[in-house]
Write a structure and sequence with these properties.
With 262 residues, the protein is of the alpha/beta class. 42% of the residues lie in helices and 15% in strands. Helix 1 packs across helix 6, helix 2 packs parallel to helix 3 and helix 3 packs parallel to helix 4. The radius of gyration is 18 Å and the shape is globular.
Length: 262
């Protein structure tokens, strides 16, 4: 997609991949990059470089409820690039997961993605252009133990993205989903802490947020409909399309119901 003069919105723009992607888009000639955050006053300003975006502006966007999403979306204005990046992680054995945390995660990871897209999409359709970018995860394909509810949320985003992409064919509006590998963020630290109790995470691919953000921005410009993880993580995605026994064997090697550490 040609980004010159367009407006992009990135949710979860205060840290991690969201912050890095907001900076990457700010370096491109957009009219405005909207940084979706819960508290705009605490957003560390981003100054676009010469030739970059004319403005980077934080906007209040709380994805925690239907009402808060409606309130935030009503103040957005026209959005040409919607990046549903914000996410939460809950891991561990299913019977040990906090039910309230699971509900909150499903709200942010899946329900908010559908709701915010539904609010932004009509304007894109009226203008005959736009792209929706949804952040998924390798576990949205490779469904592994100790990430049951998180994997379900990300698999839901994959299904939503692909169904919507086909629904929008011929409208000028595209949909891309991003299969995120291990990126060095606070969420990956949380994953190591929760998931790592039951599985060895030492061999995971780990890339820097800026590197992954540049790949996402480039894929947006190229009009791709999926951005794969690359590296060793790509093998897990490939295995997910083969016999279940392949991932069953991998899970058996790396996972144990007995915690690795207290």
């Amino acid at each position: 997609m040609e980004l010159t003069g367009r407006t992009a919105l990135v949710t979860g723009a205060n840290r991690g991949i969201g912050r890095a992607l907001t900076e990457a888009l700010a370096a491109r000639p957009l009219a405005c990059v909207l940084a979706g955050v819960r508290d705009p006053e605490r957003f560390d300003p981003i100054v676009p470089p010469p030739g970059g975006a004319r403005e980077v502006r934080p906007v209040r966007l709380d994805l925690g409820s239907r009402a808060s999403i409606d309130e935030g979306a009503a103040a957005l204005g026209a959005v040409d690039v919607l990046v549903n990046n914000a996410g939460q992680f809950v891991g561990g054995l299913l019977e040990e997961q906090d039910t309230e945390a699971v509900y909150a995660m499903l709200q942010v990871n899946l329900v908010a993605v559908m709701h915010l897209t539904q609010r932004v999409l009509p304007g894109m359709l009226d203008r005959g252009r736009g792209i929706v970018v949804n952040n998924t995860s390798i576990v949205g394909y490779a469904h592994m133990p100790a990430v049951t509810t998180y994997a379900a949320s990300k698999a839901g985003v994959v299904g939503f993205s692909e169904a919507l992409r086909r629904e929008l064919r011929g409208t000028g509006v595209g949909v891309m989903h991003v299969v995120t590998p291990g990126v060095r963020t606070d969420m990956l630290d949380e994953t190591d802490e929760q998931y790592g109790r039951y599985a060895d995470t030492s061999s995971w691919d780990r890339i820097e947020p800026r590197e992954w953000a540049e790949r996402i921005a480039g894929a947006i410009e190229s009009g791709d409909h999926i951005l794969g993880p690359g590296g060793k993580t790509a093998l897990a995605k490939l295995a997910s399309r083969g016999p279940a026994a392949v991932l069953d064997a991998a899970a058996a090697r790396m996972f144990s119901r007995r915690p690795r550490s207290a």
